[in-house]
Amino acid sequence: MISVIVPTHNRREVLAKKLRALENQPGAFEVIVVADGCTDDTLEFLQQYKPPFAFHFLEITPGLGAANARNRGAGMARGDILLFSDDDVIPQPGWIEAHQKAHTRPRTVAVGRLELPPALRGTGAAELKGPRAFWWNITGNNTSLPRALFEEVGGYDPAFSGYGGEDPDLGYRLMRAGARLVFVREALAVHEAFDYQGQAIEKARQAGAAHVRVWQKHHDPRIAWALGVHPVLVSLKLALLPSFKGLLGARGDYELAYAWGASEAWNPPSAS
């Protein structure tokens, strides 16, 4: 059985859309929603929701971030396979079955295909179409793995409590543990990125800083190059993007903010 782990924070409307999309999925699975510091009507909705699949939810107050919420959800799971998928990622037909079929060999980490709605394409929001996936593509959006492997590497690091960092940190540790990484084209989900348009630049800045912290944690220069936060890359981006970011369209602003966030993490301002 697959256990679908869904962290959520004050996004009842899009969470409801996700859960209703899951109602049409065949296969043996359960869904665990972790309401992380919700102050809207999410809890009232979850208390009244009666789906056709096995369903559990828990509340965390105060909210401690996605990494902690995913760990808590995994701790409740009864399935041998954990499928992490955020509240604004809408599964398409055959999603559960595709992830189930991917686990024919041990220590497999399956990364599904992730697409964006037209309004968000080119903004820097996460999108993955294959044909391959790498450790830095392992995210809480559309990734499944054996529960035993997740526990072996220690799960998500709750020290990454802000935006960004927890996914590549987990992906790197899974790679080091010898996980078999596969891209599953049939496991399609649409990343609606519910609040992305209004917060894209600030999220990019936070992600740049968080990815520097991933490198600082593991001290492997491959991380800095793969995540685009090596000081050489950051310096080049800061030198060139102010003049040429327009050539990248909407993504130019995202890339510049990402570089600024990384630069600030490399060179934190001294205390006055």
From TrEMBL:
It comes from Meiothermus ruber (strain ATCC 35948 / DSM 1279 / VKM B-1258 / 21). Keywords: Transferase. GO terms for molecular function: transferase activity. It holds the Pfam family Glycos_transf_2. Residues 3-116 form the Glycosyltransferase 2-like domain. It comes from the Bacteria. Residues 127-185 form the Galactosyltransferase C-terminal domain. This is Family 2 glycosyl transferase.
